[in-house]
Amino acid sequence: MSRSAVVAVAGVACLAATAGSAGAIINGKDSTESYPFMASIPISVPALGLKDGVCGATLIDPQWVVTAAHCLNMEIGSIPKGTVRIGSDKRRSGGTVRKIAQAVTHPGFAQSSPNKNDIALVRLDHPVSYKPIQIAEQPGRPGTPTRIIGFGITSFSKNPADWKMSKRLQQLDTRRGAISECGPGYASSTRLCTISQVPKAMACNGDSGSPQIQRGRGGRWELIGATSGPGAKSPSCAEGPGLYTNVPAYADWINKTIRKYS
Predict the structure, then answer these.
(1) Does residue 1 register a pLDDT over 50?
(2) Which residue in 31, 92, 193, 221 could disulfide with 169, CB within 3.0 to 4.6 Å?
(3) Burial of 258 (0-12, 13-18, 19+ CB in 10 A)
């Protein structure tokens, strides 16, 4: 089965947590408000020694979450526990837990540096009562304040066996970066360059697929990105910048997929 295929999940799916991917938050802080749309998918990667990993996701429909396609890459060897926790600021408790019923990766996904079309959808076995976040019509211009949230590592290590995922949801204030603020060939119309407003802070391992959000009408949060990886060649995640899949750019694919499989 190809990576772009629809994956019918019966308690087994494969989620990536590679040493080079970004996704948790280094030098962030404990969440200061409720994010009922936040979701997490517990994983392990036995081949790399990772026993207690996680990918992030975002509730965009009562029965669907959006995440990074590389979190569903069967060729990397990650093993999920077949569940999604929604609406909790704690990684191992609270919120609502649903089984993964189905996963759909974008047909154009390609694992590389940077990843291409790094977006996927996961259908829950039953709807949840939390209010989904609205996908923005488009990301704000470069310089627009944003925020990233996630459950991944808070201290960098190249060895997955040493990764310690955060028990409490972390957040970091960021801004949209210009394409030129990321490495050559990284940011594009479908990949958002993301710059931390705090020194030596950025997304890192363990929270790929987690949301980047901005304030929309009425001050409500709206979704603009899903953590994809580093935004430039760097010795560690904390050096930044970060790279996020531009979720609004895939709105048509998201809507068609949900209609097709719901």
Answers:
(1) no
(2) 31
(3) middle
